[in-house]
Amino acid sequence: QAAAGGGRAALRACGVHNVCRLLSRRAHGFYARDAGVAHRKNLGLLRKIMCQESTKFKNVWTTHSASPIAYERGRIYMDNYQCCISSIAQEPRILYQKSKCAKSEKIEDALLLECPLGEMLPSPSDYKASLIVLTVQNWLLRLSADSGEVLEKVYLAGSCCKFFRYLCWDTPQEVMIVKSAQNKLPAAARQAGIQQTVLFYLAVFQVLPLSFVGMLEINKKIFGNSVTDVAVSNGILIVMYSMGLVRLYNFKAILEQFMEQPFHLGQEFNWNGQVGVVGKYPFGLPCNIKITDTPPLLFEASSLENAFQIGGFPWHYIITPNKKKHKGVFHICSLKDNTLAKNGVQDMKCCSLEPDWIYFHPDMSGRIIHVGPNLIKVLKLKEVKNHADQMEIAEDFMIVANRENCVNNSVTVTASGRVVKKRFTLLDDDPEQETFKIVDYEDELDLLSTVAVTQIGADGRAHLDFHCNEHGSLLKSIPLKESWDVTYSHEVYFDKDLVLHIEQKPNRRFSCHVYQMVCDTARDDD
């Protein structure tokens, strides 16, 4: 016992080195000086306050614009990112307003870049949030998120490509991909019999500090004639084909295997007869990754409209069988051996204008969210009893739309006693019935949010509901005061104590409505 006591004392003296014990102690709040503990406690308090009955969400600000409105982490961007408004203050305020840019400087896409924790960075400006934007003239700019000042600029397109249009993350906040639009020859060139073999260009960057990894082509001669699109995610190159085929390749291995020569931004180079500076006008970036042979195939699947997702534990994927009659039917299969999970065919049998949709839960729990017009199913993977090597899909919980007052009788009797039969039945997403339009997850508060809409006369009325992410129980409902037109696109952001609704209106008009949490019980009208 003395020896054991001494061992425990030594363990306390040198710190806990067992990972399971460390996590358990941290969850119980043993490390009160840890900043993460204080942050988690604060978020827990915020969640409790927000879900109280007396807490309201007040519409504090509304604005309109003739151009699309974007939102990123407490910042509202308008006028093609020329105007930035902070939504964190008690009333939204302008952070910066630039003069109207020329069409040649129009921004095509943007990503918010945030400082990584625990790393030494070369410039003080790197420790603050910044916005990476891609202009129509192929300039990649890094702007200060608070002032709009240009911190870095890279010219992308040398002689190889003139149409870079898309930004996306390979690894979030670490590796960024800049993708070109699909290369298409002019009609005259096609009639003359000229062949276009290069379909897309991909430029790869590491961020903070911004550094050039390489540029590569997606070529018909390597990947086939029927390629329609490409994407990169988590180190995987995803190639999509016109017949619904999806193929996966190891993107990191491609970069390593086919890299001809590494280059750095600002470096002088002499490449294929060109002399210039990497990332400077007019030379841009060299295409220094040449895929000369088909890379090893990791995985392929055939799915309707190339819809393909990977997630869960152990790894599974979701596809729709590649026939139009199977639209709305989802198969959940093991990535290891392609076997269909038990109860792995998910079909809500919806009769609706808009299809149901399915995806892996973003909370990294491995669960699956399946959303229909009037039903949200949260599903989980679990082992089949007495068959440890086989998985089944089980229901975790359901959220059902409120359609208590909806009566859809096919036969009605008039006051005079005449029987009237309807020749049609209502769709599952009929506007006069409450219908789910948006489902999202707030990771910091661990809440599942849903937006449901009901058409009342000429107006659509929507409410945002917060559900417990673990059990699905309703914790809070917030009515949105503005009318909701189901024929136009909508985005709803729930960010801690802020709710933001961006909507498109007729004639390409856009509106932004900001709601903030208020706890004044004396103001019931708010």
Automatic annotation (TrEMBL):
Signal peptide: none annotated. The keyword Transcription regulation does not apply. It comes from the Eukaryota. It holds the Pfam family DCAF17. One of its GO terms (cellular component) is Cul4-RING E3 ubiquitin ligase complex. The chain crosses the membrane at residues 198-218, 230-249. One of its GO terms (biological process) is protein ubiquitination. Keywords: Membrane, Transmembrane, Transmembrane helix. InterPro entries: DCAF17. The keyword Transmembrane helix applies. This is DCA17 factor. It comes from Drymodes brunneopygia. The gene is Dcaf17.
